[in-house]
Amino acid sequence: MIGRPRGRSGATAHRSKPAVVSSLVAHPAAPLNGAIDPPGDKSISHRALILGACCVGETVIEGLLESADVMATARALAAFGAEIERGDGGRWHVHGVGVGGLMPPADVLDLGNSGTGVRLLLGLAASHDLTATFTGDASLRGRPMERAMAPLRQLGARFEAREGGRLPVTVKGAAEPLPIEYRLPVASAQVKSAVLLAGLNAPGITTVIEPRPSRDHTENLLRHFGAEMAVTAIDGGGRRIALHGQPELTPRAVRVPGDPSSAAFAVAAALIVPGSEITVRGVGLNPLRAALFDTLREMGAEIAESERRQLQAEPMADLRVRAGALHGIEVPPERAPAMIDEYPILAVVAAFAEGETVMRGIEELRVKESDRIAAMVGGLRALGVEVEELPDGLVVRGGRVPAPAPAGVVIETDMDHRIAMSFLVYGLGAAAPVTVAGCQMIDTSFPGFAQAMAGLGARLAPADDPGAVP
Ligand code: S3P
Q1: Which residues sit opposite 319 in a β-bridge?
Q2: Domains of the chain and any CATH numbers
Q3: 300 in helix, strand or coil?
Q4: Is 341 a catalytic residue?
Q5: 118 CB under 6 A from ligand 1?
Q6: Is the Cβ atom of 116 under 6 angstroms away from ligand 1?
Q7: Which residue's CA is the closest to the ligand 1 atom numbered 10?
Q8: How would residue 21 be classed by pLDDT, with cut points 50, 70 and 90?
Q9: Residues 83-132: pLDDT tens digits?
Q10: CA distance 433 to 419
Q11: Crossing angle of helices 68-79/42-53, nearest 10°?
């Protein structure tokens, strides 16, 4: 169980396991076949735990992603007083403290690699009369937190941060939080969610205005747990979200759909390994998340949906994917928020597509787990792919079969799980094996990735770490 020690031992089970394998070699694959169940959605898993902690009583979560990021959020919530336990059948039980019921944590909260965890919890803590200090790994300590702190200051919270608004950050929450109206300068689901979670414990109506809609899992789950909210479209395509503060949230069962961002790697592998045909089951297809699949279809991909169903306002379906010829396209920049985490794997697919794929309007990628534009440009170039780096994106000039990579290249992944998985998928479609360093980070979002891909016939084998950098 994860919880405050209450006279019981074993209070911090489910710590993320130490990394065992750091480099993997992806071997060119024979056709991939079979079916895969992607792990639970990371964004929804964080939110289900957090909102479960805001209920009075027990919330049961099925299909929770048991990854390092989500476990870090669970441990932080336990430090705030919630009791969280893994029960029979892999169901997670959250005994919440109720809206406004967090207790001051006794120690620094380490959110590991998780930007979502830290930003959402900064929001939640900001409207409680307590002090809490957050930190994370080297990647997370390099990421901007000011974007979350700015609105939370208006609500009455105070912060001490390292230079540049970097972690460690100490929040002194507002004893009497004010409801605010906040216009997001950039479309960010994390900042939107931080403000809404803070607004839960403020009297009156907290309003967030977003220039473009970002993933709405927080809104969907807030409604599921009984919060009252009005969401209206505004001129220019954005949204206005108005939350009634201090609701009584009621525990409700949650089922987490498969993560489209994790499913994306299997889908991409099946598209680029000739002769493949696979099924990816139970993929979350929230329209504000799943635009990669539309983009791939525009590139000529055969991706068929079946068994469409719904879990707490979240659409989900099985995807049947077949390899075939692909061509480059210009990805509409306004689509970026709905596939923001999928550009690294799209850049890989683009290397296997005839012609040019233009990805613009994605400067946000520079402040993710790594600078993902630089990481993709560097890695693809090292593999011999023609790529152009733009301030706000990249252009990949691909071909059905990219030129064989120069021997001895090791792709560095800069503590970024999605960069690691993207280049491993590249190796499955390539003419020669590709070695990828830093693969232990994959556990932050897709534990068991190599095994899951092996189930489809892919070989991702441990390697020595020769240490060359592209
Ligand atoms: C997430 C939102 C996105 C995304 C991240 C998860 C979330 O970040 O990149 O991986 O769960 O809210 P931004 O909100 O900063 O765009």
Answers
A1: 280, 305
A2: 23-40+257-462 (3.65.10.10), 42-254 (3.65.10.10)
A3: coil
A4: yes
A5: no
A6: yes
A7: 341
A8: low
A9: 999 999 999 999 999 999 999 999 999 999 999 999 999 999 999 999 99
A10: 17
A11: 10
